[in-house]
Specification:
- By secondary structure, this protein is of the alpha/beta class.
- Helix content is 40%, strand content 15%.
- The chain has 9 helices and 11 strands.
- β4, α3 and β5 form a beta-alpha-beta unit.
């Protein structure tokens, strides 16, 4: 079992003036403690699920670029990019740049998006869900084209939503054959089919239905000729261990919850840590949780 540290809000002690130093410290502790990766919520406002929209939120790819310079081993990704927010050619170039500057550690986390108020508020078009699924598939096709060969597949791309006359990508990503792709969501009709067709990882919700969702994914993999076992099974979760290093009650409970997820087939848990700005919760996870679940 692997853990990815997920950053979703930045209302930390010290305010914006201290964000840089606290983020550096958190990244250093996460890497030293054995986290497999660090992910950033790709929002421009704080999501309502986390108490938004009033709250500090950093732009994801700028933050990941900063983290690339602060770390040496962890994977770096958004969880997940909303497909309407970036043109596919620019997104492929952005992830390629992150991959090159991080030494081959970038991943593309992507989904259809779900925060219409944020998009409308900042002037970003937010089409219907059906259209966003079409855009997602075209974006995946474009990214995979641009990550193929020495400079990408440079033939024109003519889709319903995107037209690229010359999808060149130079320099090419260091991760080969391309930066891993994670698709967030567990919809059985469209999302899991796209995972089987294009992705290296799925991003499921922490529900008892996980085994059923994975059975659906296995069926789609068979239809697409994909190796089901080659797809990383991930799940988002809350890593609430409290902020008292002397009290193991919450960390023991979290270990049990991660064991529950592992029993259903989850291999990687992407965890949001409450009060992460206080640093101590990350240290508790590194000291107690990661060693306990490493063998799952």
């Amino acid at each position: 079992m692997k853990l990815i540290l997920h950053l979703v809000k930045f209302d930390w002690p010290g305010g914006p003036e201290q964000l840089r130093s606290r983020l550096s410290e958190i990244a250093a502790i996460a890497e030293q403690s054995g986290f497999d990766g660090i992910s950033i919520s790709d929002h421009l406002w704080l999501h309502p699920r986390i108490g938004g929209p009033d709250g500090n939120m950093l732009e994801a790819y700028t933050t990941l670029a900063f983290l690339a310079a602060q770390t040496h081993r962890v994977r770096l990704l958004t969880h997940v990019t909303a497909v309407p927010y970036r043109y596919p050619g620019v997104l492929a170039k952005t992830v390629t740049t992150l991959d090159v500057l991080s030494g081959g550690r970038a991943c593309l986390g992507i989904g259809t998006g779900d925060f219409e108020e944020e998009a409308r508020g900042l002037g970003i078009p937010f089409p219907s869900q059906a259209e966003r699924y079409e855009m997602l598939e075209e974006t995946l096709q474009i990214c995979l084209r641009m990550w193929s060969g020495e400079h990408g597949d440079e033939r024109p791309f003519a889709g319903k939503h995107y037209q690229l006359e010359h999808p060149r990508n130079q320099p090419q990503s260091l991760a080969r054959p391309h930066p891993p792709i994670l698709i967030g969501g567990d919809g059985e009709q469209k999302t899991l089919r796209l995972v089987a067709r294009y992705a290296d990882a799925c991003g499921l919700r922490p529900k008892p239905e996980i085994p059923h969702k994975l059975d659906v994914l296995r069926r789609y993999c068979a239809e697409e000729g994909r190796d089901y076992d080659a797809i990383e099974k991930t799940c988002a979760f809350a890593f609430d261990v409290g902020d008292d290093a002397r009290d193991s009650t919450k960390s023991d409970a979290l270990i049990g919850q991660i064991q529950w997820l592992a029993s259903m087939g989850i291999q990687t848990v992407v965890g949001f840590v409450p009060n992460i700005g206080d640093i101590t919760p990350v240290e508790i996870i590194g000291d107690r949780v990661i060693p306990a679940i490493a063998g799952l």
